[in-house]
Amino acid sequence: MAKFDKIAVLDKIGSTGMVPVFYHKDAEVAKKVVKACYDGGVRAFEFTNRGDFAQEVFAEIVKFAAKECPDMAMGIGSIVDPATAALYIQLGANFVVGPLFNPEIAKVCNRRLVPYTPGCGSVSEVGFAQEVGCDLCKVFPGDVYGPNFVKGLMAPMAWSKLMVTGGVEPTKENLTAWIKAGVFCVGMGSKLFPKDKVAAEDWAYVTAKCAEALGYIAEARK
Question: Of 93, 79, 26, which is closest to residue 49 (Cα–Cα)?
Fold first, then answer.
């Protein structure tokens, strides 16, 4: 069962403005990445359902986070069908993210008051997702659509809460462009976790990079 309800999760995502996105087949590595992000100020973390037995890794890091990162909302990404969403909710997912919009996933998540953030690529898709209770929609892939897409959508639909994922970089220029365009938060993967840094177990780098990115976001919001 989710540790935090929908309102608490959206507050964590909105207050920090960034959700790291990460997958690793080794649960011990994943735990260290989660802790490094937490130490850097992150309070919502998306583990991606990517490799074989990803659900077993997720189960381990949820238990780890409950003890070592008590304020962290652990979510699951790359979900495209309701059965997989249900599996991860049972394992403690606090939010569910997908690369596409599947209204059947919304039903499963809404039943348990778990936020579902679907990937949307048009104004109409965002509208349809909002109709079935998706408070936060994902603009994906972000580097394809760009900040102007967000700005254009927000003009007639100012109530929208958007998370952009794909191509987001932990630089002042990139993050400022997205925040000024009107996004609620950003999702960031490989740019936060360079493969060489993860291989070298340079967790201090990850912590520092998270803190740096959160600082840029806070500054852009002023």
Answer: 79
Domains and CATH numbers, the chain: 4-216 (3.20.20.70)
pLDDT digits (tens, 9 = 90+) for 113-141: 999 999 999 999 999 999 999 999 999 99
Secondary structure (3-state) at 86: helix
Helix residue spans in the chain (DSSP H): 6-16, 27-39, 54-68, 82-90, 103-111, 123-131, 142-145, 147-154, 172-181, 195-199, 203-221
Q: Could you count the other beta carbons within 10 Å of the beta carbon of residue 103?
A: 15
Kindly tell me if the per-residue pLDDT of 5 is higher than 90: yes
Taken in order 119, 120, 125, 131, the sign of the CA dihedral is positive
